[in-house]
Amino acid sequence: MEQSEFTLCLPGDPVPKGRPRVYNGHAMTPKRTVRAEERLFAEFRLKYPQAKPFQCPVRLEAEFWMSHRGRPDLDNLLKLVLDSLNGVAYVDDAQVVESHASKRMPDLWVYGSKGRYRKRKSGDPYTCCGHEYEPHLYISIKPLPEWEPNKQGEQS
Asked: At what angle do helices 31-47 and 74-84 cross, to 10 degrees?
């Protein structure tokens, strides 16, 4: 049976794609990036062991629920996801023709024990817009229909 959608939720702080470093003329991908890509690939294979990659254009949605504010940049977070799922969710990331990515960060202000808002402190639960969460990555990949001309409507 062909898959209609892939979804994956990965607990833990999302990891961005690191820039390769050049040593003696050779580009080396940072170990943290390699480990994160391998983990995402392995978790995908664990959830979808028999899945064939989509051969058509796809839409990718990614939500990055962070444990801190600021860096990393959204584009670097997304790049790691795109590269990790090459060959397993889709044949090539060039098939991703539509995407939506969001980075959710902890609120600056939290509801304190005295019934007032106060600045967030280390150790406070993670909240976004007042709703508690744990850091994680959520991904959804859906195939997009390919356009085919209507044979009946063609003029001769």
From this structure: 50
Rounded CA gap, 122 and 100, in Å?
A: 30
Q: Return the bridge partners of 140, or none.
A: 7, 61
pLDDT digits (tens, 9 = 90+) for 50-109: 999 999 999 999 999 999 999 999 999 999 999 999 999 999 999 999 999 999 999 999
Residue 152 identity (one-letter amino acid): Q
Q: Give me the percent of the chain exceeding a pLDDT of 70.
A: 96
Tokens of 8: 């994956």
Residue 53: asked if its preceding bond is cis (omega within 30°), the reply is no
d(CA 81, CA 99): 12
